[in-house]
């Protein structure tokens, strides 16, 4: 894993590159363009560490993207073909651990889908809070093509996002769809012309980074906790969370900024 700023070049051979495009924003970039950023064992272990390091560093927003013309083509099947059964299980568990680390990230996460997001790459995007894609990007859970099923959360996260029937159609056929179609069914938040993708993500991540990180973390916890239970439980969780908000320094600052007609200066 290599850390860079916007104006420095990554070290040769780095499979995961961590960048800081603006204050408070951490960008984790998969860097195996010759393999369409396929998830090899080494890369997924680096990816998990990068997520953990981003959280420890105090990032307010974390972006995930790929180098080259793909976001992520999924598990590295060329690498997996040479593995025995035990190695294949280890590879799958490593992908699961990386994807679960993304899902557990306490601050807002965005998948920046510039190209192919297939199989495990789609599952990585599903683990993010938001998905922003180039219009012509191809997205899908394609495991049915090789006689498999999604194995890094896709069978659970996709139905919760777009409904069981649409998710089953995508999983049973194994056929990817364009980001434009994905936007129509709620699989991505926005599908944009490729030349507009970076500017849109920069603006969105800047807005998110300017908000209270405390309230963003609490909001994520309330929403995801509520989805696991009946609405009555979720409403109780929301009411409890509000008591934390009302006593926070960030809320006091927000009220003061509103009264004084200025941008709030939330705590780091």
Topology:
Layout: E1 2-4, E2 16-22, E3 25-30, H1 41-56, E4 61-66, E5 70-72, H2 77-81, H3 85-103, E6 109-113, E7 116-118, H4 120-126, E8 130-134, E9 138-140, H5 154-162, H6 164-173, E10 177-178, H7 179-184, E11 190-192, H8 194-210, H9 213-227, H10 231-246, H11 249-260
Parallel strand pairs: 1-2, 3-4, 4-6, 5-7, 6-8, 7-9, 8-11
Antiparallel strand pairs: 2-3, 9-10
What characteristics describe this protein?
2-enoyl-CoA Hydratase, Chain A, domain 1, 2 domains, alpha/beta, 17% strand, 11 helices, 268 residues
Mean pLDDT: 93
Bulk shape = globular
Number of strands: 11
Give the radius of gyration: 19 Å
H and E string: EEEHEEHHEEHEEHHEHEHHHH
Give the low-pLDDT segments: 5-12
| First-residue to last-residue Cα separation | 25 Å
- The portion of residues forming beta strands comes to 15-25%
Q: Biggest sheet: strands, sense, closure?
A: 7 strands, mixed
In short:
With 268 residues, the chain is an alpha/beta fold. The chain is built from eleven helices and eleven strands. The protein folds into two domains: 2-210, 2-enoyl-CoA Hydratase, Chain A, domain 1, CATH 3.90.226; 213-260.
Description:
- With 268 residues, the chain is of the alpha/beta class.
- It has two domains: 2-210, 2-enoyl-CoA Hydratase, Chain A, domain 1 (Alpha-Beta Complex), CATH 3.90.226.10; 213-260.
- Helix content is 49%, strand content 17%.
- The chain contains eleven helices and eleven strands.
- The protein has a seven-stranded mixed sheet with strand order 1-2-3-4-6-8-11, sandwiched between helices.
- Helix 3 runs parallel beside helix 4 and helix 9 (213-227) packs antiparallel against helix 10 (231-246).
- It is globular.
